[in-house]
Amino acid sequence: MSKRTKLLCRYIFPAMGGLFVTYLYNVVDGIFVGRGIGATALGAVNISVPFITFVVAFATMFPMGGATIVAIRRGRGDKDGANHAFMTAFILTGLLSAVLMIVGMIFSQQIVDMSGAYKLSDTMRKMAADYLFYYSAFSIPMLMSNGLSIFVRNDGSPTLSFVGMCVGAITNIFLDWLFIFPLGMGVVGAAAASGLGQVFSVIVLFTHFIRKKGELRIKTVKHLFTCKCNFFWCSTRIAATLGKLLRKTQHKRNELVFVVWHNHQPNFIYGYLRYIVCL
């Protein structure tokens, strides 16, 4: 195997593993909610998924676009320009995460109603709104972990990027069990477990910058306010994000039609199939 092939595999497999682990959050939540709370709660979690998908897809445009610009500038030998692009994406992702967190928490009931919850029972509507509220409360670590994993991987630490995502997933599994079964926190516990798992993931990913393993650095506050957004970069990533979002929306719309059509009672088996499809 040539050096180029080895280098390619060194980045490909951690990237694939990170994507697998990202979808594992949905799988684990579905299994614990279905087994520990019931079919109604599993349907409520599914109702919240379209907005969560929208949030992740929309916020991913900055890290993905920023990683592209960083790679181009590093290839040219422009380390300062690469770090400037990184900080721009880092700040914009953080700001957008804060906005989406506020929107998701304030309008949680209205959002799940738009997803079809208004046709369901009051119990399911309340569960869906509660899940979305507490899930949105962790929007910043959730979106920052996705963004940081991309930059950490591109900065020469693909293994750490994968490990960070795995730590978050393992934490999520343990906390799902703890919050749902012994503590009986219901869908709120499932949402909190997912959010806290992302917090641990961010902590692991931040060690890359604390130990200064790569070339990217998190600059001081004074430097942050000098960051400028590249219009062409943003416009191209917005177009790519909207394309991804439309495909996801069509898939989620079909899911919601299935849920509502079955006499407002989501099938337990369907819940498992929905999470298996994520893999």
Order of helices and strands: HHHHHHHHHHHH
Structural class: mainly alpha
Oligomer: single chain
Please describe the biggest sheet, giving its number of strands, its sense, and whether it closes into a barrel: none
Number of strands: 0
The percent of residues in helical segments reads: over 70%
Can you count the helices? 12
Based on CA inertia axes, which overall geometry fits? Answer: elongated
Radius of gyration: 19 Å
Q: If you average the pLDDT, what whole number results?
A: 80
In what range is the share of β-strand residues? under 5%
Can you tell me the residue ranges where pLDDT is under 50 for at least 5 consecutive residues?
A: 221-233, 249-279
Secondary structure elements and pairings:
Blueprint: H1 3-36, H2 39-59, H3 61-75, H4 79-106, H5 108-114, H6 122-136, H7 139-154, H8 158-180, H9 186-210, H10 221-224, H11 231-261, H12 268-278
Structure, described:
It is built from twelve helices and no strands. With 279 residues, the protein is mostly helical. The longest helix has 34 residues. It is elongated and about 60 Å long. 45% of the residues are buried. The C terminus is likely disordered.
Notable features of this structure?
mainly alpha, disordered C terminus, elongated
How is this structure best summarized?
This protein is an all-alpha fold.
